[in-house]
Design goal:
It is built from five helices and 25 strands. By secondary structure, the protein is mostly beta strands. The protein has a domain of 151 residues: Thrombin, subunit H. The strands form five sheets. An eight-stranded mixed sheet has the order 6-7-8-9-13-12-11-10, with no helix packed on it. The two termini are 15 Å apart.
Length: 339
């Protein structure tokens, strides 16, 4: 069975690509919400699904909410009641149901009145690129150089690490034991922090330059970059060999893996740039390519020309990391997998 929500969102992106010949949407008045049959911009940076099942898409120009048959476009306003900027970097649907929006000029949260409330940020660098949440509900925000914690009493993001020094985006994650892991040192160092007091617990020199990391479950972090793939056992701190099925998959191992996503504790989805998606199943010790009949996700055919960027979530250059990873993170949990 294919994942219906993933297919829906990818289908919408392909539809947007097919409509790229249409004239651009007019610039909205400040504070207005535009109703349209298409996205506000074809460069999609991130996705989220809210508590009501609505799909939100952050773009290079505007935030889009999809409801059956239409898109609602939300834009920056000239007061505190709207988005702080039209360029959206990250979206996060929190455990309490609140939708958070990170932009190049600050952060806002969605209100019950269908508006947005800007949150204070105690830093000169307001370009927030990643939102994380611990299992006990702490909300963390990163601008790459610094890490911030949301303080509900002050309605502000206060710095907890002034020298976070994350490498790339997204470059950090919180594991099931509520430890915070971040790629640093230009991609050659992995730091581990406590999310209780944000002290540095451990750092690990990396065997190769790393751009992407994933909590694969069972105490494993998978890391990729520069055409290489590694596994760290975070319980022992030792590096593990790749599973035989993964190491034997020549197309995967000869590519540069830019997406690592654990669908569950048993299945790991990977994308090799220019080659396609692969699904590793731990129990079966198998790797399926995207054209296999049992592959659980629908991957649209790539489109030629500049409009193809919409289907991959990029501006036409570089790996489709942020948007595609965000899409999978918010939809792949609905994919049934065999044990």
């Amino acid at each position: 069975m294919r994942a219906p929500l993933t297919g829906l969102v990818l289908g919408l992106l392909v539809l947007g690509a097919c409509q790229s010949h249409q004239p651009p949407l007019p610039t909205p008045a400040e504070g207005s919400v535009v109703i349209s049959d298409r996205l506000s911009n074809q460069r999609v940076n991130c996705f989220a699904e809210d508590r009501y099942g609505h799909i939100w898409m952050g773009t290079f120009r505007g935030l889009n909410k999809y409801t059956p048959g239409e898109f609602q476009h939300f834009f920056c306003m000239d007061d505190q009641s709207g988005l702080p900027d039209n360029q959206i970097n990250a979206l996060h649907s929190a455990q309490d149901g609140t939708l958070w929006v990170a932009t190049v000029n600050g952060v806002a949260r969605h209100t019950q009145q269908e508006g947005f409330h800007r949150v204070g940020l105690l830093s000169d660098n307001r370009n927030i690129s990643q939102i994380l949440e611990t299992h006990d509900g702490k909300l963390l925000f990163s601008n790459g150089m610094e890490l911030f914690l949301y303080d509900a009493a002050q309605e502000a993001l206060r710095p907890v690490l002034r020298e976070f020094n994350a490498f790339g985006t997204p470059s950090a994650l919180v594991t099931a034991d509520d430890r915070l892991w971040v790629i640093s040192g230009g991609g050659f160092l992995l730091n581990c922090y406590s999310t209780q007091d944000f002290s540095l617990q451990q750092n690990y020199p990396l065997p190769h330059q790393v751009y992407h990391l994933c909590d694969a479950g069972q105490g494993e972090l998978w890391l990729s970059g520069m055409g290489q793939l590694s596994i760290l056992d975070i319980r022992s701190g030792n590096w593990k060999p790749l599973p035989d099925a993964v190491a034997a998959e020549k197309h995967l191992m000869s590519g540069d893996i830019d997406i690592l996503f654990a669908i569950d504790g048993n299945s790991l989805l990977m994308n090799a740039i220019g080659k396609g998606f692969f699904l590793y199943n731990r129990t079966r010790e198998t790797v399926l390519f995207q054209d296999h009949g049992d592959f659980p996700l629908t991957v649209p055919e790539p489109k030629s020309g500049p409009s193809s960027a919409t289907a991959t979530g990029t501006s036409g250059s570089g790996p489709p990391t942020r948007a595609t990873t965000s899409l999978i993170r918010n939809t792949a949990s609905s994919v049934p997998t065999s044990t």
